[in-house]
Write a structure and sequence with these properties.
Pfam families: Porin_10 (PF14121). InterPro entries: Porin_10. This is Porin. This protein has about 650 residues and is mainly β. The chain is about 5% helix and about 50% strand. The protein contains four helices and 37 strands. The strands form seven sheets. The chain has a 22-stranded antiparallel β-barrel. The longest helix is centred in the middle third of the chain and has 8 residues, at about 305-310. It is globular and about 70 Å long. The model is unreliable at about 1-45 (pLDDT under 50).
Length: about 650
């Protein structure tokens, strides 16, 4: 969470429980045998009866970032049960996102995140969590056709489906595709069973190719995601309507019933490299992206009451709101890279051009950005390494990042000056409009983690220190504004894992946040954030069944969480609604039979057992009531 993805890529999201490595071993009941020490370390493809045996050990995947950094390591498919019940995106993040209480709703990170792009971005990020971006794309090397199907049926008709396929056309050429869908009925006041709050459709195609002489390497993908949401505006506060009650869920009175948001994204991506000399390659990256964001509301209906109260301005239309924004971008990056002994080096030049336009803009808000940069890495051995990278955007923006890795300590430092988003600088909507000339935002970030990992227990204290100045945010008046003061964040945390009694495990992750400085109030982060779970983990029936069963809890201290504005699709500061501290406890059961994994999760088992019958995740949006989820995932290798 607090450790940036790039800086701490070698730290697992969750510390593996000591003693649970047995689940990493694929069952051998189908005649599979471990291969002896050899060049690949992969399993035999032929058993004693000369039958071809394919499985997770013969289907490998990798990421573009590892190819670019000359540290390609093909990974085996995940068959672990750990975290399998975290099937929806917010849960997968470790509950470190604030959403609107249902799958597919608008969300934002709870903790401040350092940006990876220092140039202009769209600023419409409420649905980033549900977008499968090109840098997250998996490329495969398969010995047989690989298909993965996963179905998740959430209580209240909250459903997800994932389908993946990949196969090698030739030993050096692989093709594949992915399909992801979300169909989630409204958690608040649905009019019928299929009254969907979210309809998400995402698909992508990817291919990888390496020439026979292994000098040319190509990775390419195309992705498209259409995310449609029925905006509800939240539950009408009882102080406004005395007949409106909280914690009634399906019977809740909500503000909006005739408002809709759509986030459509499309991306063409290409990476290719050529080895000119031994250990020296040239490469090129191409991206063509677009994002179309639409919000529509019938103001002549009861939906108009919401905007009359919170957004009374009507700049363009009186009877309806139709906000349309289109952000497009072209990117070309060219550079060289290579290895010199234990050192990896890289230098590049990058050019981005794009524009934001809307139905109410006279002229598009365009940009042209040229940057140069490079990287240096030293791999002293498998456990000791260092990295340094930098990018300078001409003129005035930059990012410097350094990382040190050892068996006992990982530490990083990031210094950046990055641009506000296009939406923060120029926006024309029916209820909001502005033109700003903001300064670049400054960041200094120090992160570190101490690794104390032993056979049956693990303790990893960590610390993040942020200094942010000229921060751009949305204030209580829902206007983009820039802070005149700095904010300092001190965030110590800890991750622990204990094997309590051989097959009983206890894991905890907790953070304390202290924010000071003149700009402290611009960041709304709970003072205490904690997740913990205890579970039984053991194979059964001669290892024909693997099972995990347990309870987990999560807790955030009370804080004035940011509210959500559907018309401009942004979270903004508010001081009206205090999200009360509340522990949420879930029951989960994960099981694996052969290669098929099954989950059962009962959310919020302590519903109606405390002084409050439920909890809020965002002002006027309740979290899940007690509800049952089930899911199944099975891979096919022929």
């Amino acid at each position: 969470m607090l450790l940036a993805e790039e800086a701490f890529s070698q730290i697992p999201t969750r510390v593996p429980p000591p003693g649970s490595q047995r689940q990493n071993t694929e069952q051998t009941g189908n005649g599979e045998e471990e291969e002896g020490e050899g060049s690949t370390g992969r399993k035999k493809l032929i058993d004693d009866s000369t039958k071809m045996v394919f499985g997770p050990k013969t289907t490998l995947y990798f990421f573009e970032k590892d190819v670019k950094r000359n540290r390609l390591k093909k990974q085996e498919l995940d068959t672990l049960l750990n975290g399998f019940h975290y099937y929806e995106p917010v849960a997968k993040s470790g509950w470190k996102y604030q959403d609107l209480g249902n799958i597919g709703t608008a969300s934002k990170p709870i903790f401040y995140q350092a940006p990876q792009i220092i140039g202009t971005t769209s600023g419409f990020s409420a649905y980033d969590l549900y977008y499968h971006s090109p840098d997250s794309m998996k490329y495969y090397d398969t010995k047989s056709p690989y298909t993965k199907m996963a179905l998740f049926f959430g209580g209240g008709n909250r459903n997800m489906m994932d389908l993946e396929f990949a196969r090698n056309v030739t030993p050096n050429w692989n093709v594949g595709f992915n399909i992801h869908t979300i169909r989630a009925t409204k958690a608040l006041n649905p009019s019928r069973r299929d009254d969907h709050g979210t309809v998400g459709n995402s698909y992508s195609f990817q291919t990888s190719y390496k020439s026979d002489n292994e000098k040319y390497f190509l990775l390419a993908n195309f992705s498209r995601n259409r995310h449609q949401v029925a905006e509800q505006g939240g539950i009408i506060p009882p102080e406004i309507d005395s007949t409106s009650l909280y914690y009634t869920y399906k019977d809740a009175k909500v503000w909006l019933r005739n408002s809709q948001a759509v986030d459509l994204r499309q991306d063409y991506h290409l990476y290719h490299e050529y080895e000119l000399l031994k250990g020296w390659q040239v490469y090129h990256v191409f991206d063509k992206k677009k994002q179309e964001v639409t919000f529509k509301s019938a103001l002549g209906s009861t939906d108009g009451d919401f905007f009359d109260l919170y957004n009374p301005e009507r700049f363009n239309r009186l009877d309806s709101t139709i906000n349309f924004n289109n952000f497009s971008e072209w990117r070309n990056e060219a550079g060289f890279k290579g290895d010199l002994g234990l050192l990896y080096y890289n230098a590049f030049v990058k050019f981005r051009t794009g524009r934001m336009q809307s139905n109410y803009m006279v002229n598009p808000n365009g940009f042209d950005e040229l940057s140069i940069g490079g990287a240096l890495r030293g791999d002293l051995n498998e456990k000791w390494s260092f990295e340094a990278e930098g990018e300078y955007l001409i003129p005035g923006a930059f990012r410097l990042h350094g990382l040190f890795v050892s068996p006992f300590l990982e530490a990083s430092y990031t210094k950046a000056l990055y641009k506000p988003t296009s939406m923060q600088e120029v926006f024309r909507g029916n209820h909001h409009r502005w033109s700003n000339r903001f300064s670049n935002i400054g960041l200094d970030q120090i992160q570190g983690v101490i690794k104390a990992d032993f056979k049956r227990w693990s303790i990893r204290p960590n610390l993040t220190i942020n200094r942010v100045n000229n921060y751009v945010f949305f204030n209580e008046d829902q206007q983009a504004t820039q802070s005149s003061g700095e904010a300092f964040m001190l965030i110590p945390g800890i991750k622990t894992s204990f094997n309590v009694a051989g097959k009983l495990f206890w894991e905890t992750e907790a953070y304390y946040t202290l924010i000071t400085g003149a700009g402290a109030d611009n960041f709304r982060i709970p003072e205490i954030f904690a997740n913990s779970r205890i579970y039984y983990d053991s194979p059964m029936f001669d290892e024909n069944l693997f099972i995990q069963i347990g309870l987990e809890g999560r807790y955030r201290s009370d804080f004035y969480a940011e509210a959500y504005n559907p018309a401009m699709q942004q979270f903004h500061l508010q001081n009206r609604f205090n999200i009360a501290a509340y522990p949420v406890i879930d029951f989960f059961l994960n099981a694996r039979i052969n290669r098929t994994r099954i989950l059962v999760r009962y959310n919020h088992v302590n519903s109606n057992l405390l002084s409050e019958p439920g909890y809020f995740v965002t002002p006027d949006f309740t979290g899940l009531k007690g509800i049952l989820d089930i899911g199944i995932s099975w891979p096919l290798f022929d």
